[in-house]
């Protein structure tokens, strides 16, 4: 049974690391709020995702699981989940199927049959795609909330450094890095690199982001200052993309400037573009943390996955207009405050 499979996964983590999802599952088991709802779940399939799915199953949802194109599930783990009762379909087979709710990542469900009630999107890249579409349903964005910054600012920065070390065998401590993009992901990566005494240059097109980077003691460079950007790249040990924009590198800068540094993408899009082959960039241009066993440590995902699941209640209880809506601030702030208290950590979140 899937419940027993999920329990074995949960037993591999200290309870404090999965406190939100454990609480949610217990509440849903006592009073299932999603009984009979058909849910399409498109989130990278990892051990953490199994715990998230377990809460949805406890809520009574009929869940069909797929996975975004930028991450192929590990075959043995996927088969074990299927054997335990998880309903799995490749993304290509979901296009014409009716669902009540889409739980999406990177807007990969945007062009399939619209959901009856609405969509909940996890990422910034996906949120932008939904915002630029003429939607016939409401979409709740987890990214447009402070709770998502627990993952992107804290979790992704840690995951980038850990993944780079594992994949290359190289340390980033004391090195020089250029980070494209100073949104939540870029901020998290830059802050984590600074923690290990790495000199970081930030490249962004937004003057406000550049001012913010300067105020945070990073070297800030306008993406339109081609000479300055290429000089930073040529001086770097690693170049990291976190803009969420396709082909923002190859379309603008000389390929030769990137010859002597490691290249890594941390966004869902191919930010390097066709000028760069898959062999030029770590992990064939896919986000490098999704190539290691724990792409983001579960304590950072736990509150975000909790909110992603819980937002279905908002679709059921509120009459939302078509288009994108942020996950409610009062709920998000409460989750962040509780997370800080549970983990005894104090910080100021960006985003």
Question: Summary?
Answer:
The protein is of the alpha/beta class. The protein has helices at about 1-10, 20-30, 45-60, 75-85, 125-130, 145-170, 185-195, 205-215, 225-235, 300-315, 330-345; strands at about 40, 60-65, 85-90, 100-105, 120, 140, 175-180, 200-205, 220, 240, 260-265, 325.
Care to describe what's here?
By secondary structure, the protein is α/β, with parallel strands linked by helices. The protein has two domains: 187 residues, 3-Layer(aba) Sandwich (Rossmann fold), CATH 3.40.50.1480; 140 residues, Rossmann fold. Helices cover 39% and strands 15% of the residues. It contains eleven helices and twelve strands. The strands form two sheets. Strands 3-2-1-4-5-6-12 form a seven-stranded parallel beta sheet, with helices on both faces. A five-stranded parallel beta sheet has the order 9-8-7-10-11, sandwiched between helices. Helix 2 runs parallel beside helix 3 and helix 6 crosses helix 7. The chain is globular, with a radius of gyration of 20 Å.
Question: Helices, strands, pairings?
Answer:
Blueprint: H1 2-10, H2 19-30, E1 38-42, H3 47-58, E2 62-66, H4 75-83, E3 87-88, E4 101-104, E5 118-121, H5 124-131, E6 138-141, H6 146-168, E7 176-180, H7 184-195, E8 199-204, H8 207-215, E9 219-222, H9 226-234, E10 238-241, E11 262-265, H10 298-317, E12 323-326, H11 329-343
Parallel strand pairs: 1-2, 1-4, 2-3, 4-5, 5-6, 6-12, 7-8, 7-10, 8-9, 10-11
Task: From the structure above, extract its key features.
Adenosylhomocysteinase, Rossmann fold, globular, seven-stranded parallel sheet, 11 helices, hydrolase, five-stranded parallel sheet, 351 residues, Ado_hCys_hydrolase_NAD-bd, EC 3.3.1.1, adenosylhomocysteinase activity, 12 strands, single chain, alpha/beta
